[in-house]
Amino acid sequence: MPGARGIAREVCGIRERGFCPFNGCVPGTGPKAMEKLQKFKAAMGHSCSTLACAMNNEVDYYTRCDRFRCDVHYKQGGPYSKQTLDMLKGVLGKK
Questions:
Q1: How many contiguous H segments (helices) and E segments (strands) does the chain have?
Q2: Domain boundaries defined on the chain
Q3: How confident is the model at residue 61 (pLDDT cuts 50, 70, 90)?
Q4: 33 CB-near residues (< 8 Å, 6+ apart)
Q5: Per-residue model confidence (pLDDT) at position 31
Q6: In terms of pLDDT, which residue wins out, 86 or 24?
Q7: pLDDT (average), residues 71-78
């Protein structure tokens, strides 16, 4: 199942390398989203802005947000580069 960034946990390189504090993300509208966000904050010392944003905007994946692409995605960093975010914005017809 893809997480808030749209990457399936089964293919996430961050998770595979053991850097994910909770073994994979969940959609922003998923029943375990708040639990995952709290675990992330406890493990990393700060919130996952991508998951928090998806939850606040009530979208499962951040590319479905009406305000995609905002500064949240550029500041969070990875897994997508600025060029990829700009390309997704163009494909989705977002300004």
A1: 5, 0
A2: 9-92
A3: confident
A4: 4, 26, 27, 51, 54, 55
A5: 93
A6: 86
A7: 66
Instruction: Report the length, in residues, of the chain.
Output: 95
DSSP three-state, residue 2: strand
Distance CA 89, CA 93 (A): 6
DSSP letter at 9 equals: G
Evaluate whether 19 touches 25 at the Cβ level (below 8 Å).
no
Record the pTM. Answer: 0.67
Distance CA 11, CA 89 (A): 23
The set of residues, in sequence order, having a beta carbon less than 8 Å from that of 7 and lying 6+ positions away, is: 25, 79
Residue 34 confidence (pLDDT)? 93
One-letter amino acid at 45 equals G
14: left (phi over 0), alpha (psi -120 to 50) or beta: alpha
Q: CA-to-CA distance for 82 and 80, rounded, in angstroms?
A: 7
